[in-house]
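Hey, I'm writing a tutorial for new members on how sequence and structure tokens pair up, and I'd like a real worked example in the thread rather than a made-up one. If someone can provide the structure for the chain below, I'll link this post from the tutorial.
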Amino acid sequence: MKILRVLSILLLVGVGSTPFARAAEDKVSTRFVADNSDAPSFEMAAETAYMLGIINNPNSYEIGAQFITARWRFGPVYREGFFRGYNQFYFSGVAEPIFRGPENFYYGITIGLRYNFLHAGSRWTPYVSGGVGLGWIDSHANVIGAQGQDFTFNVTSAAGISYRINDHCQASLGFLFQHLSNGGQTDPNPSLNLLGPQLGVTWSY
């Protein structure tokens, strides 16, 4: 009988304390939350861009850039205001046929960060990103304005907007800027600056 009384008392205490526990949970700040449905943990993307040479290069470059990119979300979702969103780390493999210019191709890798502006109830997600990397180009050092050696560094930045087609697929449109340079390893060191539109498809997991 004593055991039954103890169990009855514990049950009453547990049921009675439930509303207080929920009230305490409601008071916990929701400023930072992890929302896996809106902010996937991992993504794979295929992206393509068409870029033109800009800023102080005598050659009228036209380059097609192809990216296969893996993205990992890190940190919580920032939940308040216009800047609500989440961070991603990304790694890209790059292949760039050069349609116009002294060289013919560029291959490389890039790592960087991306921020997605996430708004509740919207399929549209603006983003900004930036990264650095390295690569190889079939250089022609004897041509004015061409790259001075095969090994080069790259700096990229992008901004655009993605549209969520369904829970696992997004389409994106934006602009891509890319800077190629060998970091002063040759003299002269003709840098190459490129800008153009970028399209992409992303699969979320």
